[in-house]
Amino acid sequence: MRDDAPEAASLGAEFWASARVVVPPGKASVHLRVDQDVLDWFKAQGSGHLTRMNAVLRAYYEAHYEAHKPKG
After folding, report:
1. Exposed e or buried b for every residue in 32-56, given b needs 16+ CB within 10 A?
2. N or C: at which end does the chain have fewer Cβ atoms within 10 angstroms?
3. What band does 67 get if pLDDT is binned at 50, 70 and 90?
4. By C-alpha distance, which of 61, 23, 64, 56 is closest to 39?
5. Is a pLDDT exceeding 70 seen at residue 2?
6. What string of DSSP letters covers 1-21?
């Protein structure tokens, strides 16, 4: 974290007492093995590496979906 980054006000104990984990709709949790150098590269880009990896997969999916659309 940067030394000059502003700090947000505390949300307080009441907020955290009623907080809950929310998984966005449409997301699935998976175990995925990737090459170490690929993971290292995404992580080196900073926080949000899993979101960026998902964006790359989505771009591939969107580029190839029509040609390989599921039948039915």
Report:
1. eeeeeeeeeebeeeeeeeeeebeee
2. C
3. confident
4. 56
5. no
6. --TTPPPPPP-HHHHHHS---
Residue-level length of the chain: 72
**Confidence at residue 52, expressed as pLDDT on a 0 to 100 scale:** 93
pLDDT of residue 20: 82
Contact assessment for residue 49 and residue 43, using Cβ atoms and an 8 Å cutoff: yes
Taking Cα atoms as reference points, which of 23, 40, 24, 32 lies closest to residue 57?
32
Between 72 and 53, the higher pLDDT residue: 53
| Contact indicator for 58, 50 with CB cutoff of 8 Å | no
